[in-house]
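Entry for 6-O-phosphono-beta-D-fructofuranose complex. Fields follow.
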Amino acid sequence: MVGNVIVGQSGGPTAVINSSLAGVFKTAKDRGAKKVYGMRHGIKGLLDRQYVDLSEKIKTDIDIDLLKRTPSSYLGSCRYKLPEISEGKETYEKIFEILNELDIKYFFYIGGNDSMDTIKKLSDYGILINSDIKFMGVPKTIDNDLAVTDHTPGFGSAAKFIAATMKEIIRDGLVYDYPTITIVEIMGRNAGWLTAAAALAKGEDCEGVDLIYLPEKVFDIDHFMERVKSIVSKGRSMVIAVSEGIRVMDGRYVFELSDHVEFVDAFGHKQLAGSAKFLANKIGSELGIKTRAIELSTLQRCASHMSSRTDITEAYNVGGAAVKAAFEGESGKVVVLKRVSDDPYMCITETHDVHQIANIEKKVPLEWITEDDFVTDDLIHYIRPLIQAELSPIMVDGLPRHLNVDM
Ligand code: F6P
């Protein structure tokens, strides 16, 4: 094998993104890679020559086992948009200069649809200058909004945490003999996959959530207030799941209806937070009912103590599949998961042109959202296999043990 390997992580973290890192590292080593470098804070860090030799950090099989169970991005992350090639030639020259200094022949980037923009631009530039470096995308995002792939690693574990947490919130929320309303805000930006996972809470031991609001449909506040009023008028408590990205008719996010501080990242994404709080305040003040807003926020992204073994395994496999494909000569591609069977559930990996994946958001199909503010059984059946099985944390002194980040 000629040349070295470099791998980076980018975008929001997940509970299993390090399992993909482990899959890239171990597969590259097993296939004869001399050095496997890790970019610190993705491409942004690389531009500042921030990288580590991963063999000095991951030395034993126990380290691999710990890495798979360590949440968030072990190498650090970034939200950094590369310039268009025509406008930022110097940036690309610098990146390729650094890659050549390190004798890199294989470049892997673990991320979502914004991060795949980086793979797209680097592989396009590589073709322009006749570089022989192979560029491969490794999918990840709790949002599950990546095109082409059946689902994204990271989603299953976040969905499992959300469904389990909803069961506990429902137990707590229905405890009193007078009506209360709990509104839970769930991440996912403009795609409702994760919020839909709240529906999985329902079962023979749990009533389930009452209403679910996804960003794919316009949020009608008056209709929402009517629904709440009619349910609580029967003396019932309610638990409601709302996406952080729900918007009203004029396009504003619900959280933008209240005073807020707005942060916008390099991809132009506003920080979404506060919809549940806004709605809880509105119900409290207009209907005089006790309300509580719960923002699951970052808790849902890195809950490795509640991760799905299916998810951890698939995250590892997509990392390994990216290495195999690149070592066999593929470039400018993303590894995707293809569901080949529902019962028993089975997914295989394939590779797909990054141009059809980068910057595209895959939304929940409207036919999977019901008229009465819930989701269909088809959507529940789609998610259910992804949350199956557990990989127990390695517990030390009563707490899950993670791989140390001492870089
Ligand atoms: O990575 C996706 C995501 O988790 C979204 O669901 C959420 O809106 C966003 O990240 C938050 O990003 P940040 O950590 O940059 O605030």
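NOTE: The longest strand covers residues 333-342.
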